[in-house]
Amino acid sequence: MQVQVRILRFDPEKDGQPYWQEFRVDADPSDRVLDLLHTIRDEHDGTLAFRRSCGHGICGSDGMVINGKNRLACKTLVKDLKQPITLEPLRGFRVIKDLVVDMEPFFAKYRRVMPYLINDEPPPEKERLQSPEERERYDDTTKCILCACCTTGCPVFWVNSEFLGPAAFVAAHRFVFDSRDRAAIERLQILAEYGGVFNCHMAFNCVDACPRGINVTKAILELRQAILGGAVSSSPERG
Ligand code: SF4
Ligand code: SF4
Ligand code: FES
């Protein structure tokens, strides 16, 4: 079949502003959007820029706006999309070129919640043990691939530059509820401040956008409950 693809192109080194470019591509209905991008770059325009790595929904590098929704190019099939298929870079980040955006502001907020195990106690002779039930407590939030589809689809992210965003909350949840970690209070303190979990309006865009099916709002609610349970004081209002 022939597929009509419209891509929002922009090369800051030579373009004054972004513009739409249309391609007609031979494809199978079972092809992924990532396959279309490869065909376009290999057969139509070698200057097209996009990110990919794993090609199988694991690395999180090909998040983009596909027909108006945040999705992974490698997990979205041609047969599930109306034509013309429109492809835009994730919104809210500086465009480096075409579909490639500068993710550093996203990762800076991710780092704010200390997304790594913290435990200064002397390690046991073997590993730090955990029961299956304790592991299950944060299983859902271990699935995040940092694609930024949730954060860049969040209405609060659009209006509040200090909002940490759902991906950072998911990362925090993964460690706050890990029985081996000892820095939950510090993380919850950060999440209780302005820009943290109390600034979320529960619009559920993040749940819809997540290609890993993570229940992001459940994680946010559990973090709020942990704060309200008295672990730390909260100050979600500015000033
Ligand atoms: S539920 Fe909260 S974090 Fe998720 S999209 Fe809505 S406002 Fe953003
Ligand atoms: S929570 Fe889901 S949408 Fe958000 S960064 Fe992680 S995998 Fe992507
Ligand atoms: S290429 Fe890795 S998630 Fe799509």
UniProtKB/TrEMBL annotation:
GO terms for molecular function: 2 iron, 2 sulfur cluster binding; 3 iron, 4 sulfur cluster binding; 4 iron, 4 sulfur cluster binding; electron transfer activity; metal ion binding; succinate dehydrogenase (quinone) activity. GO terms for biological process: respiratory electron transport chain; tricarboxylic acid cycle. Its cofactor is [4Fe-4S] cluster; [2Fe-2S] cluster; [3Fe-4S] cluster. Its EC number is 1.3.5.1. CDD domains: fer2. It is an enzyme of class 1 (oxidoreductase). Binds 1 [4Fe-4S] cluster. This is Succinate dehydrogenase iron-sulfur subunit. Residues 134-164 form the 4Fe-4S ferredoxin-type domain. Keywords: 2Fe-2S, 3Fe-4S, 4Fe-4S, Iron, Iron-sulfur, Metal-binding, Oxidoreductase, Tricarboxylic acid cycle. It comes from Candidatus Fervidibacter japonicus. Pathway: Carbohydrate metabolism; tricarboxylic acid cycle. Gene3D superfamilies: 3.10.20.30, Alpha-helical ferredoxin. It holds the Pfam family Fer2_3. Belongs to the succinate dehydrogenase/fumarate reductase iron-sulfur protein family.
